[in-house]
Amino acid sequence: MSTVILCHAESVNLDTIRASDANIIRYSVGVKMTELKDMLKQYTAGRIRNLGLHIQTRDTKLRILEDMEVTKESLENAGSFVSQFFRWLISEVLIEGAFIDFLLTTPIENASQICLAVQSVSKKKISVRLVSRFLSSELAPHNRRIVEIYINNEIMITNPNPRATSAQNRYERIRTVGKGAFGSAVLYRRREDSSLVIIKEINMYDLDSSQRRLALNEVSLLSRIEHPNIIAYYDSFEEEGVLMIEMEYADGGTLAQMLSRTQNLLDEEQIGDMMIQMCSAVAYLHENSVLHRDLKTANVFLTRDSFVKIGDFGISKIMGTETLAQGAKTVVGTPYYISPEMCSGVSYNEKSDMWALGCILYEMCCLKKAFEGDNLPALVNSIMTCAYTPVKGPYSAEMKMVIRELLQLDPQKRPSAPQALKMLRPSENRHRHTSGSMRSSVSFTTLYDLHVPTITLSSIPDLPSRISIKQVALSKTHTMVLTNDNELFGFGDNSCGQLGFGKFSKMENGRLVESLKGRDIQSVGVGNYFSVICCDRGTLLTFGTAKNLGLGKDAKDSAKPMLLEQLLRENIKDIYCGHDHVVAVLESGECLGWGSNQYGQLGLPTLEHFFAPTKIPMPSNKKIVYGKAGKDATMLLSDDGSLIAMGSNKHNKLNLTQRVGFFTKEKKTPNDYVNKPTILQGFPERVVDFSVGSYHSGVILESGQVMIFGRNDNTELGLGNSQKMAVRCVKPVKSLLHHACTHVLCGDGFTLVSTTEQELYFWGRKDLTDEDVCIDDLEETVTEKKMKRGTTTEIFDKNVVTLPSLILRLQDERGDKGIRLSGLAVSGRKVHVAVDMLEGKRLPSALAERCRSGSAPAINDETTHTWLREEFEKAEIIPIDASKRRVRFDDSCEKLKIMDATAKQNSLLREIEDLKSKIKEQDTTFEGHRNQMSDLESKLQELQAKQSFLRKSEPPPAYDRRNVTYNKLFPERENTSTTCVIL
């Protein structure tokens, strides 16, 4: 293994100061690439361990050759000469675990990004480091160790007293950019190379012994840390009693400054990208036994391209053996971000940093701090009770789940930094930020109708093929689809003009609502025969049946959107529609309602129809942030996590029925209707999602658990039977305890739940017959009710799914695409499922080449004959049971090698193999090729017939969860979708 310095004629000549065991390759920037590769090969044969690249030109650019500048963009472009050179260099010249060290005379911009981009061009494990001013005698210790690999240290040191020159002569002061507890951060320009640096000036005379110890602790710590997402340490020195710490300058300011300037919510992709970088830096710190202890938005620095750098390690702590075992105990940090264990004075560990990251993530999503208080005791109480407003922004359930996990009161339940990285960076997008093989993705959505009786999906016809759906609003009469481009599509019954097309004719297929084109639509709500649109600045438009438009008693049915003028002075945040009522939530947290109040679903005192918006009084002046409306009931979520319900409580579907004491006579008239907003009790954790069905309801807790309550005639409670649940004995659905659930839907006689694993579970009745329909208004005698209860618990019905069963699992085996379950909507027995597809444009890269054999051409390769390429493209992919036949491709010729199969099948497969070999050799005429392809097709059909039985009643091979109940009651079928697998 050798050490090589690669430098060209425009860089500094290092011949006289190189280390004795280092070889120098010096060349002209005008040589050809082949000549440069030949120079490298004479030292290598794949044996270089340390490669120093001294390729900085006089204009401070990094150039391999005259027209090959090394930049982040050129490295990420897989087709560029720069990317191809480094791919060859890493794969052919360097050994596994080798080092590439950029030796710079002048600091450059985007240095960290360049290092990451070099690492991403190949999967081979290497390390890339960058040393600025490598010839300086003032190098930091960790940089000096790198330089000593290539340079003779004794020769390099020419100035025996490097501190002799005054700092004022070497640096030009520009401005003060920040002030801290112990000093100030000043922006300087280094006169030697005109580079900008931050020098933290700390007057040691003004500090006591403990404060001086903290200042020196930062110097000691910074000199040991080196990570792309941590502010780089250059040097430290003391002049006239002032300790100066020279550090990297982040020209984009701090995250706190960025958030203070932001008016609109940040994009989730931007938040995720920045959070991944923060978690990566914190994971590095914890791996090296360092607690930051003061993570906050003011200590997260940004470059102009939003690259994240964590800084300010003044109160960081190096975790020794005692700290790792027992935890730290000193209370430090900014009050808004300190953890509950630090507030209570108990020992803490790295999980306190994770709490601070949760506070930062919340602040990025909501543009406000997670915990606030008028004074310090109020703030501490808010932190100790974990009282934060749930995230309401347009963010995915996965992002909200990460916030909830990081802000767990119990530090043991919080994820570690590596675990948080996995939660933020799913497997299908794991290389999105580090690999140059993918460009930005384009998302589009496919909307499916879920046919409950057969559990099958069918796409909704005539919607545009490449729309990105923001919201699906579904009622028993019609459907409205809102896209991210502010286009609204509608289809279904239009007898009252509820589709907004200006006419009253039925529309079977999706059609654009032209009258709303150009409107900035925030959300849409639909009920039976009416629709409500919430536009920008909180204005409302309504159309459909007159009684639910909120325009007064004299209103008429409208097929065109009508402005609700009464609410022009109100700023509407969101709307929620039931079958015959509407609840509007204001920015202030107040609620207005109109429509039917027959069952108390509006929470108003009189059970009548309200034709105009009316204020709904909330208990204890709760501020509402979110809600759901059902057939005859409404649930609302307040900013402190309280769940408020009103409306029909038949079958105790709102969980409001009080338990009757042992000696108390049972009331003849149960509390079936609640016309006053009432706070629900009995949930062990904060509620994050909920659904109000016709006969039962469900909630999802902060931990991801599901609780269902209400009628259980069709086993919709997920208990495994149809027994009636005791009052106030709601428990989590046991079968889903090991899954993080994100959404719950309560339909008529069934329940649907989605998880963070892109899975959909179903239980309840698939097909409701006339005998199964429950008519609530029927009068039954006490004897009849007892007989009914006694016979419903043991009946076996093939249409009833008693336990949660997996019916849909989205999986992605293609590296250039990703799919996710983006939306669910239910109304009665109707269910719509929205599936997002992220389609990336794959570029030719080493990653793509490794997916195929090195010698075999790709199907779309120009060297493959057109007729053969077309045959392969049209060929059917035949699934083979991996447990009974193991098939693998040989690296040289892609032959099928068959193991553990019957002799007859082996013979058939050998014949297919021979035919493929003949076709590949292409040594016959065109007519011969056609005959060979015909024989191959017949053999494949014969093999497919022999293996067809293997595809019956088998779950997808990629799915092997043993704790999931696979429902044998579902019909066996072979049809699958390109975007999902139906089980």
Automatic annotation (TrEMBL):
GO CC, alphabetical: cytoplasm
GO MF annotation terms: ATP binding; metal ion binding; protein serine/threonine kinase activity
Subcellular location(s) of the protein: Cytoplasm
Requisite cofactors: Mg(2+)
Positions annotated as RCC repeat: 486-537, 538-588, 589-640, 704-757
Ranges in a coiled coil: 898-953
The name this protein goes by in its record: non-specific serine/threonine protein kinase
SUPFAM superfamilies listed in its UniProt record: Protein kinase-like (PK-like), RCC1/BLIP-II
This protein's UniProt keywords: ATP-binding, Coiled coil, Cytoplasm, Kinase, Magnesium, Metal-binding, Nucleotide-binding, Phosphoprotein, Repeat, Serine/threonine-protein kinase, Transferase
Residues that, per the record, bind ATP: 200
Domain Protein kinase: 171-434
Keyword Chaperone recorded: no
Enzyme class (EC, first level): transferase
Family: Belongs to the protein kinase superfamily. NEK Ser/Thr protein kinase family. NIMA subfamily.
Lineage: Eukaryota, Metazoa, Ecdysozoa, Nematoda, Chromadorea
